Amino acid sequence: MPIPLQRRFSRISQGIPLLPLALLFIAFTSGSTSAAETVPERIIWQKEPIRLDLRVGKERRVDFPGPVKVGLPPKLESMVRVQSIAGTVYLLAHSAFDATRVMVRETDSGRMYLLDVSASGEGGSGPPVEVYADDEPRNALRPSETGGAAEPPLPSYGYVALTRFAAQQLYAPARLLKDLPGVVRVSVKRKKVPLVRGGEVTAEPLVAWRAGDLHLTAVKLTNRTGRALILDPRALRGDWLTAAFQHNRLLPKGDESDTTALYLISARPFAASL
Fold first, then answer.
1. The whole model's pTM is what?
2. Could you tell me the CA-to-CA distances from 152 to 142, 143, 146, 266 in Å, in that order?
3. Whole-angstrom Cα distance, residue 218 to residue 204?
């Protein structure tokens, strides 16, 4: 069942209550800096190319499970500087370029990673990226196999805690951010999707996490019309366990409040649930 929608406050700086919890909201604006740009992106490698956006003149860091070698295509050799040190890769774009496939090989295991790297001259520097191998959690030994005590299981989280976590990761000041053990960031394609019926609202996934068997996705919603709209969870396509709007009312297109966030929890990844 969808979770109840909330009211919008008149001032952007005010807290926005979501469910029984208090969350912070900052409007989507081109000149604002999200807290998501200051905390690491934690991505599990699941054989899907990892999208990596660079800003010209600003270095970005990617951490892998072990030492790696980067196979840079010849056409990028003069456009981007790459340094690989003990599993950490530093990338610095000298000029803008479109998305290009880059292969990264883990020297110890031979595991291959694929990055779709692009660079532009606009925007701020992206956050560091931490890449985890998908098989690492499944390889943990049981107590009978180790002869010792098992490590304590990771906690499970309710819908309220996960929704609040997503909102804080996107918009709260960095000093208020806290990681949740067992909640890891996963890749999601940041492109417009037909999530809201009627065509009046555009939807674009921003970031996704996995928490045990649950998948959490934050989606950007934007009003395409010249009139104010009331958001209705019944208009959402897909199979969702919960849905929570940051605001349930969008002002007309072009207004600073024509955009809000939607938090979705599902039993499958976003693309499979849509």
1. 0.51
2. 11, 11, 14, 25
3. 9
